[in-house]
Write a structure and sequence with these properties.
209 residues, alpha/beta, Rossmann fold, five-stranded parallel sheet, four-stranded mixed sheet, globular, Guanylate kinase
C-alpha cells in the first residue's frame, strides 16, 4: 500500500553508531518522528505512558500478540517490547515520516508487514574499529564485549536484505548519507505528486497510469 508518509527502519550491530546517527538526524529533521513501542516493563524515572513507551501488562501484550497487533516484537531480558501495527499505519497514512530503531530481526518483520518500509543498515568500517568503540564506551565487561562482537557477526550477515547500507567511518559523512536517504524518499514521484499537486496541475502533467 502506498502511504503519504514514509516508514524508515534503522538497524546496526552494537557499537556501529546507530543511536548517535538517529539522534543527530532527528535534531536536524523535525519531520522525522520516532515510533513509540509497547513494553511490559515498568516506567523508569520520568518516563511517561505514550511518550517513551506505552506501558502495558503481560495480559494486554498477550492479547495484542494473539490479535496480530504487532508489526514486530521481541523478548528482551525477560520483558517484551513491540511496535504496534495500527499505530504505524495511522501515522504514515496521516503523512508522518516515522523512524524505527530496532534490531535486524525486527526490521525484517516490519518489512513483511509494511513492504514499502525503507530498511537502512549501519556498518562499522572494520572489526578493529567496532571493538575499539565498544571498549571505549566503558559500559561493558570484556566478556560482554566479546558477546556483542559475536552477535555482530550474525547481524551483519543480514545486510543484503536491507535497502540501504551506510558505513559509519566518519560520523559527519554517515549522517550526510542518512539525510540523503530520507530526502530521496521524499522526492519520489508519488510523494511529490501528493505534496506539490498544484504544481503538477499548473504544468498540465497528467497522473500516471
Amino acid at each position: 500500500m502506498d502511504h503519504p508518509g514514509n516508514l524508515f527502519v534503522v538497524s546496526a550491530p552494537s557499537g556501529a553508531g546507530k543511536s548517535s546517527l538517529v539522534r543527530a538526524l532527528r535534531e536536524f529533521d523535525a519531520r522525522v518522528y520516532p515510533s513509540v513501542s509497547h513494553t511490559t516493563r515498568a516506567p523508569r524515572g520520568q518516563e511517561k505512558h505514550g511518550r517513551e513507551y506505552y506501558f502495558v501488562s503481560d495480559a494486554e501484550f498477550d492479547v495484542m500478540v494473539a490479535n496480530n497487533g504487532f508489526a514486530e516484537w521481541a523478548n528482551v531480558h525477560g520483558r517484551r517490547y513491540g511496535t504496534a501495527k495500527k499505530s504505524l499505519e495511522e501515522r504514515i497514512q496521516g503523512g508522518t515520516d516515522v523512524l524505527l530503531e530496532i534490531d535486524y530481526q525486527g526490521a525484517l518483520q516490519v518489512k513483511q508487514a509494511f513492504p514499502s518500509a525503507v530498511l537502512i543498515f549501519i556498518l562499522p568500517p572494520s572489526w578493529d574499529e567496532l571493538r575499539a568503540r565498544l571498549e571505549n564506551r566503558g559500559e561493558d565487561a570484556p566478556e560482554v564485549i566479546e558477546l556483542r562482537l559475536k552477535n555482530a557477526e550474525e547481524e551483519m550477515a543480514q545486510v543484503a536484505k536491507f535497502d540501504f547500507v551506510i558505513i559509519n567511518e566518519l560520523f559527519e559523512s554517515a549522517l550526510f548519507d542518512l539525510k540523503a536517504i530520507i530526502h530521496a524518499q521524499r522526492l519520489k514521484y508519488a510523494a511529490q505528486r501528493r505534496l506539490r499537486a498544484d504544481t503538477f496541475e499548473s504544468l498540465n502533467i497528467p497522473e500516471s497510469n
